[in-house]
Specification:
- Helix content is 23%, strand content 21%.
- It has 143 residues and is of the alpha+beta class.
- The chain has 2 domains: 1-39, no CATH class; 50-134, Alpha-Beta Plaits, CATH 3.30.70.
- The protein is elongated and about 65 Å long.
- Residues 22-33 have a biased composition (Polar residues).
Length: 143
């Protein structure tokens, strides 16, 4: 028992409570209030809903952006952050994408981009890119 306590002190951890060594979950007394038997959190499985990880994107037909330009723009700023890109494909008489939706791996990215604003304009390769908070209830921004 003393050896375990010395090891815990050496690692900068709190002393191990003797009741934890007994192995009974009903007797465990944890000083920091955390459950030592709790299931481990896996951010890949337990993520924020897609709506909170999305941005609606709009750009000009006159100065179109392609998917690669948009992916590169966000990746240069936030690393490998994009889960998927969805764009409205042009009709036969249209020659460029005009709106889309980007889904990020983390909900913090749209928040860092927009801050408290609902929409902002970014410049990507000297072209305007409007980023709007994605609203799944708004039929106008479904992609």
């Amino acid at each position: 028992m003393d050896t375990l306590n010395k090891q815990a002190k050496l690692k900068g951890k709190e002393e191990i409570d003797e009741t934890m060594m007994a192995g009974s979950s009903s007797e465990v007394q944890n000083k920091n209030g955390l459950n030592p038997f709790a299931k481990e959190w896996d951010p890949a499985k337990e993520r924020a809903p897609e709506e909170t990880r999305c941005l609606y994107l709009a750009f000009s037909r006159c100065h179109p952006l392609n998917e690669d330009e948009i992916a590169l723009f966000f990746s240069q700023r936030f690393g490998r952050c994009i889960e998927k890109l969805n764009f409205q494909r042009p009709q036969k008489n249209e020659d460029a994408l005009i709106f889309g939706k980007v889904v990020f791996h983390f909900s913090t990215i749209p928040v860092s981009i927009l801050g408290k604003e609902n929409q902002i304009m970014l410049t990507v390769n000297s072209k305007s890119l409007w980023c709007l908070r994605f609203d799944p209830l708004n039929q106008n921004n479904e992609v």
